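Action item from last week, closing it out:
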Amino acid sequence: MRASASGGEPWASGLSVPQTLVGDVAVWRAAHQVLASDERPTGPVCPRAAEARWQSRLDARVEAADAAGRTWSSRAVAFEPQLGGDPGLPKLGRALAALAGEREDAGHLLVEALAEPLPDTHAADALRFRVAGHAAREAPPTRWETVHAPRPTKDQLHGWRPEPPTPGRTVCR
């Protein structure tokens, strides 16, 4: 059974994850006193080896549940290898996936935001901020469609004759 985990948990915004995973992360957050405002699923990196391994497993499970975010995270790393391993990368991937759901030019906005070098620390967060800024400044591209008048049916054409030209009036030049 999958349930939406966006019931007030900032770490789960935009995710649809198994309810058991939501429970596992909630227990971890409570045991490690992770602040409710911390948007990382398992909070800050734990210094102890055993806890760090378990934390890494939980983070990997959350990331695996987010296919669209994972796809966009991979794209971002392909454009900028410095992002690999950044703790803010999953959040960047989720933000880009949400943007791609709203606009067709999310990839273009990502490339635009990468035009300038990223900082050495918090690179994914900086990039997420830049992409959001570009998205706010630029209107989404307009879709153009060619609309054709409906063709008349045979019944509508039955009995129709073009009007003869009026004498003294030039029809074509």
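Closing note: The helical segments are 19-31, 49-64, 67-79, 89-102, 106-113, 123-137, 154-157.
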